[in-house]
Amino acid sequence: MITLEYFGILVASLALYWCFQNSRLRVLSLSLCSLLFIWLLEPMSVVVVIGLSLYTYAFGWLIHRHPNESVFHGVGVLGILLVLILFKYLGMLSGISEAVYLFLEELPNFSLHQLFLPLGISYLTFKHISYLTDIKWRMISPGRFDDFILYSSFFTIFLAGPIERYERFSPQLRNVAKMDIKDWQEGSRRIAVGIFKKLVISNWLAYFLTPVWENPNSYSSLQALAALFAYAFMIYFDFSAYSDIAIGSSRLFGIRIMENFDRPYLAGNISQFWRKWHISLSDWIRDYLFFPLSRLNRRKFWSIFLVPVISMALCGLWHDADSRYLLWGIWHGLGLSAFQVYLQIKRKARPQAKKRLNYFMNRFGMPLTIFFVFFGWLSFRAYGFRLAVRIFMDPWALILIPFTFILLVFLQDLFRKFSDILSKIHWRFEYTVYTLILVLISHCAVYTGFIYAGF
Amino acid sequence: MEDKLLEFIREEFLEDPDQEIDIDTKLISSGLIDSFSLVSLQSYIEQEFGKRIPAPRITAESFDSIRQMVEIIKQF
């Protein structure tokens, strides 16, 4: 995203967009610039975007107009999912079919080949499913095709989200009358912060931690644990940097895109973490998977255990057809289930026990969540298993892990004590901070791609 | 409608049924009600008032207090 193509298209599309007074011409120019951006990166992806948008928009009208809305919704969503499977999961299905053939050689073997992977396909299909479902739920009407094609292709959020909803996106295309200096201030600030997070923080962290992840046996268990913690911050800074640039760039057009992060590593429990991490994806999972699945069955085992695990497993697979992401999703699903069990116990507990549980969660909730989430990252990245072995198979782990936990409790207390002062310092020296950011970007930048743009 | 919702939330979700809540109490953003409880609340509203509220409307921004819930229910 921090490329010549991106910023070239950004400047050109801003110039065109604000040249026009007519909102339809603005939308048209921005759509064409967005499609041009996609074409520059991967020409065939433009065909997929336009084709899928025509398909989804047609089904949007069928759902809106026809009395058999559920049937059209089902067929429409199924078609979108098939596109996702065709492009993204065919490779995984191929692996499964070959494994079955090796196991039962009498079966006819058929070969499936991974097609090319269109850019932003996971984000695009999720946006389209939410569009069709919101029409079915009578929350939105299909709107105009030029708005919808811009919603599908808007280049600032195309590659890695946030997964914006049509309901929030489309009214803004009509409301923007003239340029607002506040939008430009906020947009530029977010872009600068995003570039700083990516080029200075995330990429430098990656520079130091990558050798440890790739060859953990050459390092001590303390260094391996430090590399795990560094990775947790690297992935946060990498992805939130992308979101900052996307949100900031959109703001230059007067378009407000939903926030994707809200200080996730300060969450007091795993449920709160998922309201703060990749918010647009977790909201999507909650609205279109978790709620509908929960309504299928009233049994507690289903709603407390199976639904979170299934929802989060699919969330993991959404990243890529890889067992690492599946494991990561199941890990988080189990964490959400465990937290629900804790809440059920607390609800039924006596007042004294309830007080103790509340104290425990208030004191240790954040460090526990950090441990849970950070160890979950072990299955998210390649070589994670080797790093886990290095950390846990060392006798020092018996001292190192409890020590780290106590350190986190101490840091949490320190943060709570000084959070007010920190926020005041931030505002007082705002412009000094931004100047420093720009200086650091110009002197310390390291260039690599974004992690989440690969999904 | 407000009274029924108050009664249901107090009985089903509050850790302490004697806890004081009113129609403006923040329920989701304060952590009194979580996502799992919201599914039960969605079903209750459907059974009691015959309105199915779509999940994207059941958020801390638009469905946080009983007053907001009533407004949303009236829209559907």
Q: What is shown here, in short?
A:
The complex is a heterodimer of chains A (455) and B (76). Chain A is an all-alpha fold and 455 residues long.
Could you describe the 3D structure shown?
The complex is a heterodimer of chains A (455) and B (76). Chain A has 455 residues and is mostly helical. Chain A has 2 domains: 4-178, no CATH class; 183-454, no CATH class. Chain A has helices at residues 4-19, 23-41, 43-65, 69-103, 121-136, 145-153, 155-158, 166-175, 181-214, 221-252, 270-273, 279-294, 300-319, 323-348, 351-376, 384-392, 397-428, 430-444. Chain A starts with a helix and ends in an 11-residue tail after the last helix. Chain B has 76 residues and is mainly alpha-helical. Chain B has a single domain (2-14, 26-75), classed as Non-ribosomal Peptide Synthetase Peptidyl Carrier Protein, Chain A. Helix content of chain B is 47%, strand content 0%. Chain B has 3 helices and no strands. In chain B, α1 (2-12) packs antiparallel against α2. Chain B is globular. The model of chain B has no long low-confidence stretch (mean pLDDT 86). At the A-B interface, α12 and α14 of A face α2 of B.
Layout of secondary structure:
The complex is a heterodimer of chains A (455) and B (76).
Chain A: H1 4-19, H2 23-41, H3 43-65, H4 69-103, H5 121-136, H6 145-153, H7 155-158, H8 166-175, H9 181-214, H10 221-252, H11 270-273, H12 279-294, H13 300-319, H14 323-348, H15 351-376, H16 384-392, H17 397-428, H18 430-444
Chain B: H1 2-12, H2 35-49, H3 66-75
The secondary-structure element order of chain B is HHH
Q: What fraction strand of chain B? A: under 5%
Largest sheet of chain B: none
**What separation lies between the terminal Cα atoms of chain A?**
14 Å
The number of helical runs of chain B is 3
Low-pLDDT stretches of chain B: none
Distance between the termini of chain B: 14 Å
Determine and state the CATH class of chain B. Answer: Mainly Alpha
> How does the helix and strand content of chain A classify structurally?
mainly alpha
Which word captures the global form of chain B? globular
Give the count of structural domains of chain A.
2
Q: Which percent band covers the strand fraction of chain A?
A: under 5%
> Which CATH architecture of chain B would you pick?
Orthogonal Bundle
